[in-house]
Amino acid sequence: ATSVVAEIGHQASRETILAAYLVHFEQLYTKAKTGESARTAWRARLVTLGRDVQASWPGGTATGIAEDVDADGALLIRTAAGVLVRVEAGDVTLRR
Fold first, then answer.
1. pTM for this structure?
2. Distance between terminal CA atoms of the chain?
3. Per-residue pLDDT reduced to its tens digit, 32-75
4. Burial of residue 62, with CB atoms counted within 10 A of its CB: 0-12 exposed, 13-18 middle, 19 or more buried
5. Which of 11, 24, 47, 77 maximizes the CB count within 10 A of its CB?
């Protein structure tokens, strides 16, 4: 957890932050309307990809290497047994 002050080093008005968020959202929305996916940019920011992870969700767990995310945003984990597990929602932690 963090705060705006901790991240930028000074106070910022809520209105300024909201306006910047809305401008950015509108840019993403315009790209999405033309068929461009935000998946590539989002995928590039994921710290879990290529790393050993453990995911847990109600009714299950998976441990292995986070390989990718699919078009729907589900995390794909390759277990030690070679099984590809699709995790739609849950808690994911890095191991080692």
1. 0.66
2. 21
3. 889 887 778 888 888 899 999 999 999 899 999 999 998 888 89
4. buried
5. 77
The span from the CA of 88 to the CA of 77, in Å, is 11
Label residues 5-44 b or e (16+ Cβ within 10 Å = b): eeeeeeeeeeeeeeeeeeeeeeeeeeeeeeeeeeeeeeee
Residue of 82, 71, 75 lying closest to 56 (CA atoms):
75
Q: Which of 96, 74, 73, 94 is nearest to 86 (CA)?
A: 74
- Give the type of residue at 51: R
